[in-house]
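Example record used in the benchmark description.
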Amino acid sequence: MSTAQPLRRARRGGPGGSGRSRGGNLARVAAILFCLVWAFPIYWMLNTAFKPRSQVMTSTPLFLPRSPTLGNFRVAVTQTSFGDDLRNSVIVVGVTVLAAVLLSVFAAAALTRFRFRGRRAVMVGVLVVQMLPPAALLIPTFLVFDRLGLIGSYLGLILAYVALVLPFTIWVMRGFFLAVPVEMEEAGRIDGASTWQVLTRILFPLVAPGVIASSVFAFITAWNDYLIAYTFMKEQNQYTLPVWLATFSTPNTGTDFGGQMAGSVVFSLPVVVFFLLVQRKLVSGVSAGAVKG
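Model output (structure tokens):
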């Protein structure tokens, strides 16, 4: 037998290699189709954002704008409420991410590095709350916050977002803390480090990828939320950008699809840029948090 035959067989994957190759090709085709279906709304959003108003609503779909324009973007960003809503989103989301990351890091450190009564019950409670749909908690949370006088304030909206993202971020950070060998912590204690020094100088730097993953999740969740912001805020100048997107549709004038799509592009840019910057650490962070039990 010549050496070329084993090589060809190895390239085909040996006996049954053709079947696996067909399966791989089908998987690639399915993946491509899935990506096309997923990407089409984004393409259509960009396509509509650059169309003149006369080309947005046509009987024959235009898959490329015949005369691209930035007019829809000018209409979107010159709305009177855009500046206020952008400021509100930046403040609320920034504080939410900071608070959620800090609380989740210390909570995960306590649940994994310290032994205390009720620790298992707390972990089960975090897991149960994580499984509940946010819409089911909306009305009870609103009633509690209303009694506390938090409705219509930045603090109320921030606390609602922190409560929403905290169970998942705690669970992710717990996986990272469990991945750090206890021997490293014990070596620090032998060298005379206090508990605070062990946390800040040994554990926290090692779980930094988990902090990034948690911050990305908290950022995307708070940035994209419409329901809580619309329910918990009372005044027009208190709304965030997701609510601002809804202002392009009114009962009297109908929906300005061009302006709305341009506003969606502007609204999506921070999330896309943030995700592209940290996507590798996000994937590794979520995987680590999911694997460690």
